[in-house]
Every structure is written in C-alpha cells, then in structure tokens.
Amino acid sequence: MKLVGSYTSPFVRKISIIMLEKGITFEFVNDAPYEAQNKIVQYNPLGKVPALVTDDGEVWFNSPIIVEYLELLGIAPALLPRDPMASLKVRQIEALADGIMDAGLVSVREQARPAAQQSETELLRQREKISRSLDTLEKYVADGTLKADELNVATIAVACAIGYLNFRRVSPGWCVDRPKLVKLVETLFQRESFARTEPPTA
C-alpha cells in the first residue's frame, strides 16, 4: 500500500499510526497539499491529505473513510468495537478530535497571513472551538468513555489532535485544568507508533 500525505498533518499521522499498530507495510509518499506542484490531486480531487492507494490500485481518501477501509481488512488489533452503537460512539469522538485538528489547521493558516490581514475574530472562533472540545474530552476521560489503556480510533485521533496543538503551538495552555486528558495522551505518546510518526521539528 501507499500512503500519500504530509509528515506534519495530524490526519495523516492518525492513519500512519493505525497502519503501524496493525503491522501493515506501506510506502509513505510525502506531499505538501499547499505547494503548487503537489501530487495529492492525482489521488484526491479535493487536494486534501491523506490518500491511501491499495495494492490493487484503488484509492481511498478522507481519513475516516480510510479508517473504515483499514478496519474492514480484519487485521488485528481491531480499533473499532463490533457493536454498531459502541462503534458509532467511538466514531463520534474521532469526529470531535478531527474537528480540533481542523480548527488547529485553520488557526495556523490564519496566522501565516500578513499580520494586517489576519482576522482576530476568526482566530478567537477557532480557539473557542478547541477549548470547548477539549473540555468535552476531559469529561469523557473522567467518566470512563475514554481510557488511557484502550487503544482505539478515538484515543488515537485524540492524541493526534493534541499532538498537533503541541507541534504548532496552538492553544499553548490547553493542559491547564485538564489533568485526565493530559495523562491519557502522555500514555499514548509513549507508544512506538506515536514516536515513529512524530512530526519533524525543522
């Protein structure tokens, strides 16, 4: 298989981690979607990463769709529950984590614009999204919905989202008053799959 994406994308990191945890061999094609000569449009008309190219040449894009495809392969460990409602709950938390990633990406792009063109209103809106979502995740850890010792699509997505906030220094004080969430992600960050997919600092 071939995974097309950027080393710094949290969505790509989510898929990389899932494939590493399942022991799936894949070629990584590093591609920056915002560069003029990007390759991703060959695989995804939306020009977004990640895209997964299977051994028979079929292409899947959008990270939740790729997650679903990888689970359908039946390769252990299973990262979604078999029970449909339990699986739906995990997917909803994944969607919340993906929303944090989206808000972080919007914030980074906004801050990359010339200072005079930046919208403080937009930046505030994204910060509020992130804050509300992190508060919800803290509650999920507190009530046992999310567990540090349970590796699934939800916990992987949450850790990737927070890893991106740390990497891009978005919401630098996110850990204040969220001790249970801090403990959960610190546990996940110790896994080899997370260490191997840490984005480059340069």
From TrEMBL:
Native organism is Atlantibacter subterraneus
What is the name of the protein in this document? Glutathione S-transferase
Question: One GO cellular component from the entry?
Answer: cytoplasm
Ranges of residues in domain GST N-terminal: 1-78
Tell me the CDD domains matching this sequence: GST_C_6
Record's superkingdom? Bacteria
What are the protein's UniProt keywords? Transferase
InterPro entries the UniProt entry points to: Glutathione-S-Trfase_C-like, Glutathione-S-Trfase_C_sf, Glutathione_S-Trfase_N, GST_C, GST_Omega/HSP26, Thioredoxin-like_sf
Q: What EC number(s) would the UniProt record show?
A: 2.5.1.18
Q: Which NCBIfam families match?
A: PRK10357.1 (NF007682)
One of the entry's Gene Ontology molecular-function terms is:
glutathione transferase activity
Q: Which residues form the GST C-terminal domain?
A: 83-202
